[in-house]
Amino acid sequence: MHRINFNALFEVLPSPHMVLDRDLRFVGVNAAYEKAVLRTREEMIGQLMFELFPNDGDSGRRLRESFDRVFATGEAETLAFIHYEIPRPDDQGGGMEDRYWTAVHVPILGDDGEVEFLLQNTVDVTELQRLQRAASLPIGIAPGVGTPAGGLELLQRAQEAERAHRTLLDQSDNFRRLFAQAPGFMAVLTGPDHIFTFANDAYEALVGGRQVIGRTVADALPEVVGQGFVDMLDAVYRTGVAASATGQRVLLSQLGDATPIERFLDFTYQPIYSPDGAVSGVFVQGADRTESVRAAERQKTLVDELNHRVKNSLATVQSIAAQTFRATPDPVAFRDAFEARLMALSNVQNLLTDSSWVGADLGEVLLAELKPHGDSRVSVSGPAVRLTAPEALSLAMVGHELATNAAKCGALSTGDGKVSVTWSLVDGDKSGERRLLLTWTERGGPKVTPPTREGFGSRLIARTAVHDLGGTSEARFEPDGLVQTLDVVLTAA
């Protein structure tokens, strides 16, 4: 068997051929190409094509766009007729020489299956163009050169074919721009392996900016294989029956990050048919509904939470009413005490509403009860403590009872008395548990004596500390003023 020397074959090809890499640098030319462009291979190899043969006009743009399409799509392309001037060497007078060409651009694939080089085969049709111009002169002057039979008709057909080709390209580019800028995601998959041949901007954003063109779905998006989407594509390609889904959950990785992100999609897989009626690919279109799905989930959670809180609030109001009535049978006293406790409940509800019921700051909860007595007479200090909604409600009621007692008969009942509240956080007995140690201290008020009976406020504080917050409380009636301490358990931060 004879071995073919392809380098020698390339060299002796009678028509001009050259090879470009992805940077559009010359990596190979044959002798016919050297002769056609009036340059030696030493002048061209390693040089950028558009630096050696610059053209800022329409012809240069069309040629560059053709190169780009071949590298992007892996499909050959023909420019049937293109006007492209070339620089004339200095020893031939310099300047630019008018030339007309037909060019065929063929992709050359690398070992990875991607387009690595581009082969151009050119035919110089300058003489045919000159013949056509001469034939169109009003006196019918013909140039003194031999004309191949049908040469003018051939050139005419080439020009017409090129105009039609450019019209189709312009229309195709317009459609591509429309699809690329569409708000919904779109992609075109070709063949039984579902190779991406088109993906618009929204699709690329959906998959985290990963490059998918020329790759199969399984290769470009490996995380979706085990989620059933490739099986759906297989079924559409095999049966020709479209498939769709609404609010479909999918986990998608992002460029440079292997951790998948949860998305919810509406989509349709539509079969694409070839001229012979067989399924040749799948058209993917859809919309990312992640935010609307999550908004609906948040809405449902908020409604459920609201129902729960309304029930809890009603139960709290019922308990306050019953306890207040037992402690203050006088209607006027009952009304005043009941309204004050409802206001305390309302104050903390406002704080929680501002945070969408996520929680409230301990210092703000206490100040809501103490501020009405004047900034100079109250102080709160301690580390930042974020309370859950139930914890905030419980400690607000404790703060209200202590502030009410201080205003009625404690430090805030005189002009010089003061209240200070301090707290700290320590680790609880269980892993991740926090314990709040809070001390309420009154000074400067009337002399304190221990009460002869336990009132509603004392019972509420004790019950809240034990039953609601899983801790303890202690009241010390020192001569200088009340000292109330709480040691309660808070939810882990």
Helix-strand layout with pairing:
Blueprint: H1 6-12, E1 17-21, E2 26-29, H2 31-37, H3 41-44, H4 49-52, H5 58-73, E3 77-83, E4 86-87, E5 96-97, E6 100-109, E7 115-124, H6 126-135, H7 151-181, E8 185-190, E9 195-199, H8 201-206, H9 217-220, H10 229-239, E10 243-254, E11 257-273, E12 279-288, H11 290-327, H12 331-354, E13 360-361, H13 362-370, E14 378-381, E15 386-387, H14 389-409, E16 418-427, E17 434-443, H15 456-468, E18 472-478, E19 481-490
Parallel strand pairs: 14-16
Antiparallel strand pairs: 1-2, 1-7, 3-6, 4-5, 6-7, 8-9, 8-12, 10-11, 11-12, 13-15, 16-17, 17-19, 18-19
Helix pairs in contact: 6-7, 11-12, 12-13, 12-14, 13-14, 14-15
Can you walk me through this structure?
The chain is an alpha+beta fold and 493 residues long. It has three domains: 119 residues, Beta-Lactamase (2-Layer Sandwich); 104 residues, 2-Layer Sandwich (Beta-Lactamase), CATH 3.30.450; 193 residues, Histidine kinase-like ATPase, C-terminal domain (Heat Shock Protein 90), CATH 3.30.565.10. It is 42% helix and 27% strand. The strands form five sheets. A five-stranded antiparallel beta sheet has the order 2-1-7-6-3. Helix 11 runs antiparallel to helix 12 and helix 12 crosses helix 14. The chain is elongated and about 120 Å long. The two termini are 80 Å apart.
